[in-house]
């Protein structure tokens, strides 16, 4: 694409200098990526101001700069009022509006986004469709995997990935849409067909002033679904969540509601039967009962399942065909993932790192455990300090034995984190222990387990990177620690006998 063609997509701008007839190589917001014939967009970020990097971008080969503040460089400058908005518009134009060629599902909510995207992926595979997933775990295009930094990447990365997806036979892309992405305009210009809400709970308060602004941030996904009826647009809303009425009012298109409690919702789950590793329920839609069998447990996963089924159904695929694919989903990585079992003891890894998620998981496990529930968890460093005593209290109250330990400290002192966790210990409680070292805490849980017990390793899910209090970053996974812990238990037993 030629420079002039690209900027034709922006009506309001001031061009200083003569745009050359050069074909653009790429557009980018990061000087560390600039190559010859790139367009560089200056973004004011949390840490840096891209305008200060304009000269460096030119030195690296940029042929034009997009800015909203005065800069002095030897290449044409396109001045706009908002460079973040310009970036979204230009990225969409540069890559040829690829999201219009895909069926797009956006999923927002505090908990359950990753799970819903992975259920949707399994359904799409079962329907023999090409699937794309973007979220916390990374980017997937059918079976190809790419890592990401953000749950929802910036607008240029997103448009580039959509373009790639169109080339790689992806039919449907299911992406997690974080509240930060909505507020920062990372998803501006994406033509969603379906927008899904999981739930809203008290999290990410370090990023939003209060619950009202957090709720308003997530509402943007539904308001941005569009205000015309040329293309079918559907919002999948959780009738059991406090946001239901508010978000319903924001949607111009059709709403498909789901619920595990209210039989008046469009998709209603009833007659739920939980087993140790599976769940059965009846899905009722327009008075017809559809039996569903899934390899996931917990009421919250019944809700996640309804949301995922609703999203694919809203795209026009038959409900019966969708439901037939569900048993093929083995589970979701790091979300109630069974990582070890021995002597009738089961060890699960779960990503629950908020009071709400912990409550849900512990309640679920309590319903199925034959013996005790042993929970191992800590609180992450550098953020959401107010969660620390709450998580401490919930774990001790809702498990039979809580082993408190370190989560990823991100450079904060673990002693400080523990000091903030301690006030949450219920007065007189004795069903807990504290081991600063997470490996030791996991080993201790495995050593003390008896037949019928369930061990929950909470907070880190499938994370492989561990950033400790001293600033060191190394490889650590709960799953590997659990497997080593089981081997160690048998070694110790062997030595005893
Ligand atoms: C606080 C925040 O939102 N940060 C995001 C933001 O970075 P930033 O604003 O700090 O950018 P910056 O580092 O100040 O740089 C400003 C500009 O200068 C440019 N620059 C900078 C240095 C340089 O040498 N050359 C250069 O060109 C940068 O490329 C950028 O264009 O823009 C980056 C690119 O899009 C993001 O990767 C980054 O997310 C960081 C990693 C982050 O942790 N974000 C969290 C808050 C977040 O977004 N989390 C949500 C999940 C939570 C939720 O549910 O809301 C997520 O979607 O991941
Ligand atoms: N619908 C739900 N309601 C409440 N808790 C849930 C729900 N779904 C999952 N959880 C809990 O939250 C944890 C995180 O789930 P998941 O990764 O799917 O959510 P997420 O929205 O992607 O979270 P994050 O944005 O932090 O990555 C799970 O491990 C589980 O403990």
TrEMBL record:
GO molecular function, one term: acid-amino acid ligase activity
One Gene Ontology CC term in the entry: cytoplasm
Modified positions (N6-carboxylysine) in chain numbering: 218
Boundaries of every Mur ligase central domain copy: 107-312
Binding-site list for UDP-N-acetyl-alpha-D-muramoyl-L-alanyl-D-glutamate: 31, 150-152, 178, 186
EC number: 6.3.2.-
Residue ranges occupied by any Mur ligase C-terminal domain in the UniProt entry: 334-461
Pfam families: Mur_ligase, Mur_ligase_C, Mur_ligase_M
Uppermost EC category: ligase
Compartment annotation: Cytoplasm
Entry keywords, A to Z: ATP-binding, Cell cycle, Cell division, Cell shape, Cell wall biogenesis/degradation, Cytoplasm, Ligase, Magnesium, Nucleotide-binding, Peptidoglycan synthesis
GO BP annotations listed: cell division; cell wall organization; peptidoglycan biosynthetic process; regulation of cell shape
Mur ligase N-terminal catalytic domain mapped to chain residues: 23-95
Record pathway: Cell wall biogenesis; peptidoglycan biosynthesis
Post-translational modification: Carboxylation is probably crucial for Mg(2+) binding and, consequently, for the gamma-phosphate positioning of ATP.
Record's keyword annotation contains ATP-binding: yes
Cofactors: Mg(2+)
Record family assignment: Belongs to the MurCDEF family. MurE subfamily.
Known role: Catalyzes the addition of an amino acid to the nucleotide precursor UDP-N-acetylmuramoyl-L-alanyl-D-glutamate (UMAG) in the biosynthesis of bacterial cell-wall peptidoglycan.
Name of the protein this chain belongs to: UDP-N-acetylmuramyl-tripeptide synthetase
Organism: Jeotgalibaca dankookensis
Protein encoded by which gene: murE
